[in-house]
């Protein structure tokens, strides 16, 4: 048997004899605690050794098709929705957030087009004027976010619409958006609040 070149280097046989156990199997459902949110995922069945063979990774998929990864060492994934909800509730304590129930609009402007990629998918962008005067914005390819109302912010929204004019965009009348919980963004960010998936949203 070939010797290791140094005491910290793993050989093929070391990995074989000390493989981390398989914790999750195809079809298993896990719930991620993402800040104050709970996101359900399904294990796809793919797994691999990672971190020099010290742990195992697994591919996850959401119902909307988005992928993620969990490892044997992950601490933000739970077997039950109840456990994830409890962790999310604890995370929210003392955080600066705006709940969906607190969000209402005095004006909404919305646009939509159909994206033909792996089936027809409706892409929607909207700008909503909140009761406190701030703007709640969702561009076609951006996270939901809140900014101060300004000519610059409104112009940026319109420019995003114009960049997609070749997609046969239609203005939607009477649109009622599904809003998300908004988390305060870190100091210096151009957004005041944003949804949980945005890295700069810290609550």
Please provide a written account of the structure:
The protein has 203 residues and is α+β, with helices and mostly antiparallel strands. Helices cover 15% and strands 36% of the residues. The protein contains three helices and 13 strands, in the order H-E-E-E-E-E-H-E-E-E-E-E-H-E-E-E. The strands form two sheets. Strands 6-12-13-10-9-8-7-11 form an eight-stranded antiparallel sheet, with helices on one face. It has a five-stranded antiparallel sheet with strand order 4-3-2-1-5. A hairpin with a 2-residue loop joins strand 1 and strand 2. The radius of gyration is 22 Å and the shape is globular. The chain starts with 11 loop residues before the first helix and ends in a 9-residue tail after the last strand. The N terminus is likely disordered.
The biggest sheet, with number of strands, parallel, antiparallel or mixed sense and barrel status, is:
8 strands, antiparallel
Strand fraction: 35-45%
Low-confidence stretches at least 5 residues in length (pLDDT < 50)? Answer: 1-8
Order of helices and strands: HEEEEEHEEEEEHEEE
How many beta-strand runs?
Answer: 13
Rounded to an integer, what's the Rg over CA atoms?
Answer: 22 Å
Count of DSSP-assigned helices: 3
Shape by Cα distribution: globular
Helix content: 10-25%
SS class? alpha+beta
Could you give the topology of this structure?
Layout: H1 12-17, E1 29-34, E2 37-50, E3 55-61, E4 67-71, E5 77-78, H2 81-92, E6 97-98, E7 105-116, E8 120-130, E9 135-138, E10 145-147, H3 151-162, E11 170-172, E12 182-184, E13 193-194
Antiparallel strand pairs: 1-2, 1-5, 2-3, 3-4, 6-12, 7-8, 7-11, 8-9, 9-10, 10-13, 12-13
